[in-house]
């Protein structure tokens, strides 16, 4: 039996912009590289986003409804081999762990899934371990 993926409902051939139904205007000419990049990434099909692209958008709280499930599926899929290697993609994990408490309280299934995933990991860096601890402390009543 195939395992249920959190992101099964996400049309990965669509962009965040298409899924949200909200076209942002082009950024101003003097916008930062980050702003220009986020605008461009919102227009890219989710299937074409790299792990770094996911991290960037999630860290900017863009498209979380669609991107958090995709990121959580990726983190869960790679957890066993990453744990065996003693290394994990700290940047994406950090971006996911550090979303506001309200994001997780409005998506308890995702919060519990993330908690289970980090339980699979070993040898987390000290800063990621602090983020895991903060995440768990903040949501201790629902995890």
Mean pLDDT: 92
Q: What is the overall shape?
A: globular
Q: How far apart are the termini?
A: 26 Å
Structural class: mainly alpha
Helix count, per DSSP?
8
The biggest beta sheet reads: none
Unreliable parts: none
Q: Write down the secondary-structure element order.
A: HHHHHHHH
What Rg, in angstroms, do the CA atoms define?
A: 16 Å
Oligomer designation: single chain
According to DSSP, the number of beta strands is 0
Proportion of residues in extended strands:
under 5%
Query: Helical content, roughly?
Result: 55-70%
List the helices and strands and how they pair.
Elements (H helix, E strand, L loop, with lengths): L15 H5 L12 H10 L8 H9 L4 H22 L4 H8 L3 H5 L2 H12 L6 H13 L5
Structural account:
The protein is mainly alpha-helical. It has eight helices and no strands. α3 (51-59) runs parallel beside α5. The protein is globular, with a radius of gyration of 16 Å.
Short description:
The chain is mainly alpha-helical and about 140 residues long.
Features:
globular, 8 helices, mainly alpha, single chain, 59% helix, 143 residues, 0% strand
């Amino acid at each position: 039996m195939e395992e249920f993926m959190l992101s099964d409902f996400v049309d990965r051939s669509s962009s965040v912009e298409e899924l949200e139904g909200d076209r942002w205007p082009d950024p101003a000419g003097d916008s930062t590289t980050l702003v220009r990049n986020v605008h461009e990434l919102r227009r890219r099909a989710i299937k074409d986003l790299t792990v770094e692209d996911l991290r960037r958008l999630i860290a900017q709280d863009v498209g979380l409804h669609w991107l958090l499930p995709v990121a959580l599926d990726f983190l869960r899929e790679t957890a066993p081999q990453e744990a065996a290697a003693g290394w994990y993609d700290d940047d994406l994990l950090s971006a996911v762990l550090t979303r506001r408490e309200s994001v997780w309280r409005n998506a308890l299934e995702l919060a519990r899934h993330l908690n289970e995933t980090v339980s699979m990991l070993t040898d987390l860096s000290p800063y990621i371990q602090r983020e895991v601890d903060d995440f768990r402390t903040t949501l201790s009543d629902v995890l």
